[in-house]
Design goal:
single chain; 212 residues; mainly beta; 13 strands
Length: 212
């Protein structure tokens, strides 16, 4: 066997190991891969806050947090009654604290595509972490906010993967300014409330030159 042929076989062997390692790491250490569909048919939980949820109280996975009464305060800010935070990850190794006086319902996340219109996407009282392509079409958008109070505030992040932030923005409704964002396949869009309590709101993700 020639040295050139041996070198080619070695190259492809190393490449195979590298690809296998990336797949292994993604499956076992990326929660969006490993737990994405693991508990879709799982249990629904109900709790009253203030409460600290410990590892033995909720099965590890993604849940949609529905506020059914009052309000709650979490690491993602304040949520009011009838507001929902989608794809909240509950890790068996982490305690999740919820403050204020309220009631919450945790339902297994479904990761369904968001509803779209000819103008774009509308999120009504909905926060969360959304995956580009599977839930939001990739493309260019202009993000704007309307609320009952007129002064809602949000923190927006575009993540290239669950642990790497590509861009971040503070959105203040009073500023009356649209935020231009571009979303690419595989990225995540994270929309979280400001620590202040937001009234009923609508977030508009308007197409720019028509998203794909």
């Amino acid at each position: 066997m020639t040295k050139k042929r041996m070198a080619m076989i070695g190259f492809f062997f190393v490449l195979l190991i590298a690809v296998g390692y990336r797949v292994y790491m993604a499956y076992f250490f990326d929660p969006y891969v490993h737990y994405r569909n693991s508990n879709i048919s799982g249990e629904t939980y109900r709790f009253e806050s203030p409460i600290i949820l410990k590892s033995n109280e909720v099965e590890t996975g993604f849940y949609d947090v529905h506020v059914t009464e009052g309000s709650i305060n979490s690491i993602y800010g304040t949520l009011n009654v009838n507001q929902v935070f989608y794809h909240y990850f509950f890790d068996k190794n982490t305690e999740n604290g919820f403050e204020e006086n309220g009631k919450i319902k945790l339902t297994p996340s479904q990761f369904k595509p968001l509803k779209t219109t000819k103008q774009g996407i509308v999120l009504e009282n909905e926060y969360g972490v959304f995956q580009v392509e599977s839930e939001i079409p990739e493309g260019k958008y202009e993000l704007s906010v309307n609320s009952d109070s007129g002064d809602s505030r949000f923190f927006i992040q575009v993540l290239s993967d669950p642990s790497n932030v590509k861009e971040s923005y503070n959105v203040n409704e009073e500023a009356d300014k649209k935020v231009a964002i571009e979303l690419r396949k595989g990225e995540l869009l994270e929309i979280t409330p400001d620590n202040q309590s937001n009234s009923d709101f609508i977030i508009h993700l308007g197409y720019v030159n028509k998203a794909k």
